[in-house]
Structure to design on (119 residues):
């Protein structure tokens, strides 16, 4: 499953309910709201987000999943809620003028978060 989304001045809502799937999501957004809800089991998910002047809300409910989330952001609010079991999560954030809130409720999980400030 490959999802490419290009948005200017809009709202993107993505609901994903998946089992045994590889998902690649590329999101290019300016002046928008992105809401991503992922309910996943036995899945590889790759999310690339290129954003400016955006609110990003990502809710992940996952088990036996590999997540790779790359966020390139300027003037953005990012809220990530992760409810996870038996999961590998890699989050790379390249950010300037950004508010990031990450809540993680996890069991048997490896989480790697790398953040680079572009200020």
């Amino acid at each position: 499953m490959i999802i490419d989304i290009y948005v200017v001045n809009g709202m993107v809502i993505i609901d994903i309910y998946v089992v045994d799937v590889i998902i690649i999501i590329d999101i290019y957004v300016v002046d928008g709201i992105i809401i991503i809800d992922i309910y996943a089991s036995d899945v590889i998910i790759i999310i690339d987000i290129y954003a400016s002047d955006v609110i990003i809300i990502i809710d992940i409910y996952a088990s036996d999943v590999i997540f790779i989330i790359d966020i390139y952001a300027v003037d953005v609010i990012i809220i990530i809620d992760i409810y996870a079991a038996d999961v590998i999560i890699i989050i790379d954030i390249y950010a300037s003028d950004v508010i990031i809130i990450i809540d993680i409720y996890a069991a048997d999980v490896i989480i790697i978060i790398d953040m680079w400030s572009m200020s």
Remarks:
- DSSP finds no helices and one strand in the chain.
- The mean pLDDT is 86.
- Residues 1-119 form one domain.
